[in-house]
């Protein structure tokens, strides 16, 4: 990358001085987008890319045992790779609480937030950063995020979390976990197998949560909040604030550049399929590419919970899927830590990670 002085100063302030993009908007009255955030034209999100008339499925899970629930979940997982669930039993007030806690964290003074900056965080299990991979990205994303690792087997895993949000994060992990398990069960049963001790660590050995914070952006059409990517884990369950201008988009089909808006629905959880489920299912399920558009008038918080494999899990298409249909594996076997290395070693880049292990 060759950078101008302005770019170096902005990057230095945001990344090296650990202020984040939140620090930048608090410190300066911006009327134009700083150059490190200006996306090349092909990465900007324009309204002609929006596909209308093809809404995201909304699935009522008030009775998990009704056959239509499994049917609709498996159908959505194989088509768009993303759906919303309602009537899942978590009260809207609980969601409001965790979203308020996330806002509470980002409203802390900059020096308080900085204590959690990645690389020097006061917590081993929570850290803050900006964009996605700021040291190697030629253009930055308009987002800061605080990541939490859920390690309930360690009694002190949350001892160092920020007090402004600690309780709410623990509670949210606890509430989301059984719902994730139910959905994974449905998806795995539909592949002619079950979740047991042999695959549990691969399907749900880890849980992580992000507090994503997207400040108001002076020129949103030139920036991106989160660049195009698919989640690499098994399943992500995401809360997004209601009443916020258009934000999350999911790619409608693998081969086209049309995107479907994922509207905030009060109390709903957005569920998206990650790469690991696409690999295990040998493409029965689709990990959906998605991106986040920012806006000029309000900041936005989103809270994904990522459920996924432990680092040493070996990921490959399930024999139950291949044997039943006598089909060839479409992906080569990979250890999850190598998969992570590939994903985190580059900027957000669509579905390049899963493509890297696709067999010819
Ligand atoms: O902010 C959102 O709605 C989605 C964020 C996202 O895709 C991620 O954190 O992986
Ligand atoms: Fe994502």
Strand order of the largest sheet: 1-2-10-7-12-5-4-3
Termini separation comes to: 33 Å
Question: Which ligands, by name, code or SMILES, are bound?
Answer: 2-oxoglutaric acid, fe (ii) ion
Number of helices: 11
Number of strands: 14
Helix-strand layout with pairing:
Layout: H1 5-16, H2 20-27, E1 58-60, H3 67-78, E2 82-86, H4 92-106, H5 110-114, E3 126-130, E4 144-149, H6 166-189, H7 200-204, E5 206-214, E6 226-229, E7 235-240, E8 248-251, E9 259-261, E10 269-273, H8 275-280, E11 290-292, E12 300-308, E13 314-315, H9 319-325, E14 334-335, H10 336-344, H11 352-355
Parallel strand pairs: 1-2
Antiparallel strand pairs: 2-10, 3-4, 4-5, 5-12, 6-11, 7-10, 7-12, 8-9, 8-11, 13-14
The protein binds 2-oxoglutaric acid (AKG) and fe (ii) ion.
2-oxoglutaric acid is lined by residues 210, 212, 226, 231, 238, 240, 248, 290, 292, 302, 304.
Task: Summarize it.
This protein is 30% helix and 18% strand. It has eleven helices and 14 strands.
Descriptive terms for the model:
8-stranded mixed sheet, globular, single chain, binds 2-oxoglutaric acid, binds fe (ii) ion, 360 residues, alpha+beta, Jelly Rolls, 4-stranded antiparallel sheet
What does the model show?
The protein is of the alpha+beta class and about 350 residues long. The protein has a single domain, classed as Jelly Rolls. The protein contains 11 helices and 14 strands. Strands 1-2-10-7-12-5-4-3 form an 8-stranded mixed sheet. Strand 1 (about 60), helix 3 (about 65-80) and strand 2 (about 80-85) form a beta-alpha-beta unit. The protein is globular, with a radius of gyration of 20 Å. The model has no long low-confidence stretch (mean pLDDT about 95). Bound molecules: 2-oxoglutaric acid and fe (ii) ion. The site of fe (ii) ion has 3 residues, from loops.
